[in-house]
């Protein structure tokens, strides 16, 4: 067993550990089951990577995100550490080589998704490994109380059964007490050591801004903020729109989402990490596993789905310990939109049953048949045939998959996609022609929105059916257009398959685990309610978050917008005089100023009191409010 301090210096270049890292490492190296709760940026990965090197055997790392696996393996490779990831894109020969390198070769760590644990091939090969540790990353996913419950994580119990005596380390950045208890029970941990560092981030100021003009508010913030940042938005289309808007005002931004090509995403990440790009505008696809210490601000422009996810993303700011900001900008309509989105994510039981039976009818599966049979399945064509909404059907299918009635292949979740890479002018010339290639392009423009902005999921079968062409011909034309650099086209890598794990029952006999489904829905509802409470409260925001995670004996942070006075309605005499002078000077330059544009010039935590003062006292200096505009009285 190698000394951990020498390994820390040799591979990571550090002389000392961060708080609790050494204790966590010692616990698992002593053979103890260990739970590590460290906030984002707390150095979780080192807690299992270093003992994996120090112990004589090998380590399996169970991780839910392929992108995170690749990021960590790349970082380990730069340090001279050999690690391997098993992902769905590997062929059988590549899998055999990966297993051999792990079991018999130099690789010390094997990263696998929880779904891989179900594979008979994995089970057969991994039993030959000399394991010294099993690490479970993002361990909250194993808990039904967690914000991202993944049923496949339950397979870890069987892995433990095959490797009795091998210690397990479970790691997560955000977990309530009920989640921790569930992790311990689900992983059958005995004499477990639990390490929990306070979730407090004293150097981050938490701010909530309510506005009807988010883009103007973003501009105002960007003018005041220094350093690099991340802006999280709700969808892919919005990433480009916000990035383009900010770049018009000479802010160095790039947009990022999972639909961009691998090379593009890698370049955008590297430009941001090196400081060439100041701000990334992204969906929640960005940030996981990226270690950049000097992020000065993280901005959310919508209601986050949970405190756990919000705090994890906000925690990407200020990892260097310097002052940073976590800002949420919301409009009056955002909360109702979030509630409606939540309802769509959990369709009714009757709707789920209807989707299942319509799938069986669509695939011509008789009652009592279908067991272990696989069928090509096109979601869009199915929804058109069955006259069902696509998003609702997708959510229903997820529920049916979770309940164990069917499985869906990767091709179902990764359909073909394309975007137009040539200029709109050149593209217009192409679609004006009357050949089949132009007909395809015209149909794509009518059928799919946002093709000039981002990768958009398409269905070649739908295109072929509407244009009375064969699917092979449509694919051939799209590949030709890709080669000519008119479009970027990524065909579906595998045929989408649906496999029935149970025979089709009588109509009245089909059901899902309603109790579990309703529990998941209720817990998700409570998490959303907690976020809404956080956004609307009038007391310390960081204290609210810490109490949510079970830390009750804490003081107000003193740095969030509430602690700094955003809910105070009175201003002192000196500030009143400064405000009077500033308002009169502003009106001398512009005779009409929109009230909320004027308020944006002032720090957020002072706006409420300034608004109250203006409403009560502006007439005393000859100013009035005319249809939400400040004007000089005649």
Give a structural overview.
- The protein has 634 residues and is an alpha/beta fold.
- The chain has five domains: 4-196, 3-Layer(aba) Sandwich (Rossmann fold); 204-332 and 537-548, Rossmann fold (3-Layer(aba) Sandwich); 339-413 and 496-522, Arc Repressor Mutant, subunit A (Orthogonal Bundle); 417-490, Arc Repressor Mutant, subunit A (Orthogonal Bundle), CATH 1.10.10; 573-632.
- Helices cover 44% and strands 15% of the residues.
- It has 26 helices and 22 strands.
- A seven-stranded parallel sheet has the order 3-4-2-5-6-1-7, with helices on both faces.
- Strand 12, helix 12 and strand 13 (324-330) form a beta-alpha-beta unit.
- It is globular and about 85 Å long.
- It starts with a helix and ends with a strand.
């Amino acid at each position: 067993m190698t000394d951990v301090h020498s390994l820390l210096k040799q591979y990571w270049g550090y002389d000392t550990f961060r708080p609790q890292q050494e204790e966590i490492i010692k616990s698992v190296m002593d053979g103890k089951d260990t739970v590590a709760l460290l906030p984002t940026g707390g150095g979780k990965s080192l807690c299992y990577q270093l003992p994996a090197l120090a112990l004589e055997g090998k380590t399996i790392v169970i991780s839910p995100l392929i992108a995170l696996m690749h990021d960590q393996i790349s970082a380990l490779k730069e340090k001279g550490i050999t690690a391997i990831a098993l992902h769905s894109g590997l062929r059988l020969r590549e899998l055999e080589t990966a297993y051999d390198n792990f079991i018999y070769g130099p690789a010390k760590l094997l990263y696998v998704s929880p779904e891989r644990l179900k594979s008979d091939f994995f089970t057969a090969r991994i039993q030959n490994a000399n394991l010294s540790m099993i690490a479970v990353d993002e361990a909250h996913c194993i808990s039904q109380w967690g914000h991202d419950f993944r049923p496949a994580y339950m397979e870890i119990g069987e892995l433990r059964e095959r490797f009795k005596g091998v210690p397990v380390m479970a790691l997560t950045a955000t977990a309530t007490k009920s989640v921790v208890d569930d992790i311990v029970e689900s992983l059958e941990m005995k004499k477990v050591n639990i390490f929990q560092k306070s979730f407090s981030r004293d150097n981050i100021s938490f701010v909530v801004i309510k506005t009807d003009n988010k883009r103007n508010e973003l501009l105002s913030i960007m003018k005041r903020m220094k350093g690099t940042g991340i802006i999280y938005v709700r969808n892919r289309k919005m990433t480009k729109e916000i990035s383009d808007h900010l770049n018009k005002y000479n802010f160095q931004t790039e947009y990022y989402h999972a639909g961009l090509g691998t090379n593009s995403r890698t370049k955008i990440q590297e430009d941001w990490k090196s400081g060439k790009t100041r701000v990334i505008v992204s969906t929640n696809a960005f940030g996981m596993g990226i270690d950049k210490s000097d992020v000065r601000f993280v901005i959310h422009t919508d209601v986050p789905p949970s405190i756990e996810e919000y705090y994890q993303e906000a925690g990407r700011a200020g990892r260097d310990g310097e002052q940073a900001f976590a800002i949420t900008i919301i409009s009056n309509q955002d909360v109702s939109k979030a509630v409606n989105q939540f309802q769509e994510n959990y369709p009714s039981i009757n709707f789920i049953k209807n989707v299942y039976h319509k799938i069986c009818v669509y695939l011509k599966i008789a009652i009592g048949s279908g067991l272990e049979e696989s069928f090509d399945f096109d979601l869009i064509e199915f929804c058109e045939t069955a006259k069902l909404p696509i998003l609702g059907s997708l959510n229903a299918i997820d529920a049916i998959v979770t309940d164990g009635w069917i499985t869906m292949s990767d091709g179902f979740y990764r359909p073909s996609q394309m975007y137009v890479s040539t200029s709109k002018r050149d593209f217009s010339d192409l679609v004006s022609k009357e050949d089949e290639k132009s007909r395809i392009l015209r149909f794509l423009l009518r059928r799919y929105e946002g093709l000039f902005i981002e990768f958009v999921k398409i269905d070649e079968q739908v295109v072929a059916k509407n244009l009375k062409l064969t699917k092979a011909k449509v694919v051939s034309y799209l590949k030709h257009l890709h080669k000519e650099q008119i479009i970027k086209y990524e065909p579906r890598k595998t045929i989408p398959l649906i496999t029935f794990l149970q025979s089709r029952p009588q109509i009245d006999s089909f059901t899902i685990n309603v109790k579990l489904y309703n529990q998941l829905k209720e817990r998700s509802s409570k998490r959303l309610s907690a976020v809404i409470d956080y956004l609307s409260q009038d007391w310390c925001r960081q204290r609210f978050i810490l109490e949510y995670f079970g830390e009750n004996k804490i003081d107000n942070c003193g740095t969030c917008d509430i602690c700094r006075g955003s809910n105070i309605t009175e201003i002192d005499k000196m500030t009143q005089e400064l405000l009077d002078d500033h308002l009169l000077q502003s009106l001398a330059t512009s005779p009409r100023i929109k009230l909320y544009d004027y308020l944006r010039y002032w720090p957020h935590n002072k706006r409420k009191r300034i608004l109250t003062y203006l409403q009560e006292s502006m007439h005393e200096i000859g100013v009035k409010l005319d249809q939400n505009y400040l004007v000089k009285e005649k």
